[in-house]
Amino acid sequence: MSFINRIFFLAIVFSLCPAVFCNAQSGYAQVTLPKVFGDNMVLQRGINIPVWGNATPGSLIVATLGKVSTKAKTDKDGKWMLHFSKFNAGGPYDLKISESGKPYSAIKLTGILIGDVWLASGQSNMEFQVQQARDAPNEIGKADFPQIRFLIVEHDIKLTPQSDFLAGKWKLCDTNNVKQFSAVAYYFARKIHREQNVPIGIIQSTWGGTPVQTWTSREMLLTSTATRAKILANDTLSQNDFAKDSLNMVRFWDIVYHPQGSSDKIVPLPEYDDSGWTAVEMPRTVKDFGIGKYEGMMWLRKKVVLPPSFTGKQLVLNIGLPEMSYSLYFNGAEICKTIWSSNPKQFYTIPASLVKNGQNTICIRMAMLWGGGGLNPPAENIYITDNVAKVSLAGKWLYKKDVEPALPQIRNYQNYSALLFNGMIHPLIPFGIKGVIWYQGEANDTEAYRYRELFPMLINDWRQRWHQGNLPFLYVQLANFKKVNPLPSESEWAELREAQTLTLSQPNTGMTCIIDIGDANSIHPLNKQEVGRRLALIADKKVYEKNVIASGPMYKNCAIKGKDIIISFTDTGSGLVTSDIDSLKGFAIAGDDRKFYWASARIEGNKVIVSSDKVAVPVAVRYAWADNPVCNLVNKEGLPAVPFRTDEWKGITQK
Q1: Which of 20, 221, 252, 590 has CA 20 to 30 A from 362's CA?
Q2: What is the pLDDT of residues 452-496, one digit of tens each?
Q3: Which residues sit opposite 368 in a β-bridge?
Q4: pLDDT digits over 77-114, tens only?
Q5: Domain that holds residue 563
Q6: Shared-domain flag, residues 545 and 558
Q7: Are 371 and 455 members of one domain?
Q8: Which residues of 117-153 are buried (b: 16+ CB within 10 A; e: fewer)?
Q9: What is the rounded distance in angstroms from the CA atom of residue 624 to the CA atom of residue 586?
Q10: Which InterPro entries match (predicted)?
């Protein structure tokens, strides 16, 4: 094409499509919305619905939701915000947004419902997926709730508050999508949806293992001397630090999940030379190995002589419930490769072809992470059997720590103050919500006393930023976990639960007690159905104003009468009972010496009378005060009594 012809061609194009060139010069191709807005989303009923985004500076934005229209002007930076008047529950609707006079700039979102939107946040027990929880195949198969929608915010770490999050789309609840949804949030949403008969939206912003401080804003953390120093330490960080940590994390998990240097082809072999390995009595966890704090891959081996009757038979090997990720080998062959101790399987089939007469070799490759790892007692849980005879695997094993490369150091910046708030909460503000459901606290157990301040800080922080008054903030108290202590003792987890209970003094808060449905061997108890149901009961009472019993008995006050301490409760429902046929358990009593003894306890009406022959002059009572308490006080509605203590003696986390 000649030069003259090119000029003529461009002149025609420009005359036909001037908007294309003007728009290109303006630097804005079209109106943009943050990713919290999308097809199939749920918008909050009963409030003035906020919608915001970016466009050409100084332009007029026209938005239509269903048949309702409204307008807004962009500021000098191109930012705009508008509000639709209140909608009742319903839909579906379309949302159309454009710059006035520029129809090519229009955005159209479809399939929008109006209902109740809940923000679900916290650490791994809120993140724990439906497909990981109890009865997953059955629950997934019947998950057909097109009016329940989830938006899962992708993990992200940021140094400053962001206007948008990294990734995430609204998804309908069906048998495919539900697998990845938060189990607690899903069972919560399902109950509310069925009872209220309105669409339910869940915005899921979670990250396992994270403390409350990372979900709190810099501005709020600066207001406390307890958090000021750590938030100021973030000023030395850069995005390059995060990038390096991400690379280390990839390498970290590659080592955990994939044996290095063909170690899995060499170390499990019967003829492998383990003469330089260290002996250890099993079962026990890594903290009892006597090697100090260790994080990395550990190999364990045991040679076991099987009776002649086992030869040529298919055997069953019970390895108990190992902690963390592990692979099991028998005479050099891989029998299983499993991830995390939440997998309840502990019995493994040994093919007859692998079984030798006499000596056989068992080998385990195990990730020792975060202070965990090893084989959990009791000893009778690890054995091999032909279903007739049984050979114990307890006793002497050999282990070695440095067979594979060391795990790279990971800074875990997701735990640093405010960084998840910046990347995963700030971009959601001020999207209209009904309230917050929260499950977190495990990562703050060593600073449980400070949690009395930290947790209310987060609640107040979010409420101030959402400008929706005292938004309902409903949360889950820590479950029972770890080994049962045979004697009354101090407990970080008990002190954390106490801090959570004290947070009920904040307005419009509600707490779900799950002290009866935890798992001694897993920080992730599988019964998320009941957690979601109980959390929804709190919402029924506090948010939807239903006349329901939503809590188990709560300590009210006590009176000392001779050798007895008489405990009064609120939330007794239809009356106090035990959850089993046994007498009351879980109460301990102490005198001025502050030494606690297990107490006798009996129910009289809506009170509990506590005493002990070992305490002549009692001054204090504790109930369910342990990591994993044995306790059975409930109301007749089956909701457990909330752990408590009547004393205010200094705890082990109070610095």
Answers
A1: 252
A2: 999 999 999 999 999 999 999 999 999 999 989 999 999 999 999
A3: 296
A4: 999 999 999 999 999 999 999 999 888 889 999 999 99
A5: 554-645
A6: no
A7: no
A8: bbbbbbbbbbbbbbebbeebeebbeebebebbbbbbb
A9: 5
A10: Galactose-bd-like_sf, SASA, SGNH_hydro_sf, SIAE
